Structures are given as structure tokens and as C-alpha cells.
Amino acid sequence: MRRFCCMLTTLFLLSFTNTDKKKIRVWLIGDSTMSIKEQKAYPETGWGMPFVHFFDSTVIIENHAKNGRSTKTFISEKLWERVINNVREGDYVFIQFGHNDEAKEKVERYTTPEEYKANLSRFVTETKHKKGNPILLTPVTRRRFDSTGKIMETHPVYSDAVRALAKELNVPLIDLDKKSQELLQQFGPETSKLLFLQLQPGEHPNYPEGKNDNTHFSELGARKIAQLVLAEIRALHLELAQRVVNRSLGQ
Length: 251
Description:
The protein is α/β, with parallel strands linked by helices.
């Protein structure tokens, strides 16, 4: 009985704590590695999907990432316009592109490294103008190992561009490329397949012929990447970290 009363008291106090905080939105803009998936794509999962479950009721996650988008097409298709028109003071905008920007064979998506930096700079500048908090992320790594079992860099030019821009504009950086490389190295060449959309023929009805995808995540992979982002939010001491759900208190 005493334990039950303690839990009620804790929840009561937490309810007052949460109401003291202004509600904010966290806008996610990026590509398919972050986006919400249609049912027909499962078990493919963007890391933005499990990310929504990390925060308390004062945080609203707005996942506007879209499959196949680069910084160029995110602007030209007016996807950015829809986001920035609704960003309010105190909101966060997490910006992660690169996979499609670097695809030279897809002319409609491709951006040069210089154009890429200019587009990212626009996202940052316009977010700051709205008194929001831009967060730059390097593009998450693809699964690629060399013959010795060492993880290989898959976005060196574009990741370096993000790192440089974060310094130039004094913007918080989550080096997701580096962190995800470290994660895959820990798992190793074979076990890391569990993090990606790797399916044998007949294993899943959505992919009767199987799937060998080293870019897009499984549910496990998306959760692991989302946890890396959460760890970096804490390491950067962002105010957002104070709004993480505290499971130990029964939330």
C-alpha cells in the first residue's frame, strides 16, 4: 500500500513538472533512413519512428523526413516550406541529409558538396530566424566492410561538409556517421546484418524474393540508431534532454 501511495505521489508531482514546461515540437527533416514507413515496407524502419517514444508529453515529434529526398528536392518540392512555416520559438529542427545528395546518377536529387552546404545553411539560418534550435546530423553510415572486417566510410565528403558547417555556424552537431560506424564495428560484418533490411526469400510476405539492403534499417537497427541520437542529445546538454521519459519514475 505504501509503495502504491508513493507511486501516486510521484505521478502527481510529475504532472505538475510537465505542465510547467512549455510544449515544444521536434521537427525531423531528412531522407528514408529517418522517415516513417508505410505498412507495405515493413520491417523497414526509419530511426525517427522509435525516436518518438523517448520523450514526455511536453514534446511533439514532427517527422517530415521523406524517402529519396536530398536537400535539393526537400526545397524544390516545398517540403521545407511546410516545416519552416510552422516552426515556433523553442522548437528543434534535426537536419540529416546526404544519402541522396551524393547520388550523381540521380540528377534530380544530386547536389554538389558546395550546394549541399548552402542548402543546409539555409535550413539552419531560417530556423534560427524563427528562434528555433537547429541541430545538424552527418548522414548515417551504410553497412560496408572491407576484406579485413573494418567498417568503411561511405559519406566522407558530405559528412565533412556537415562537420565544417556546424563549426562555421556554431550549431550543435550529432556526428551520426561516426557514431553509427562505431556501432556497426561493434556488431561486426555478419551480426550487423541484423540492423538492416536483410531478409531471405520467403522470410517476410512484403519481400517474397528476399532483400539485401545495406542502407535501410530493420526495427532493431532503427532503435539502435535512435538511441545513438538520444545519447548525443544528452552529451550536448540540450534542454531537450530534460524532457526524456524517466522510466525509473514510472512514466
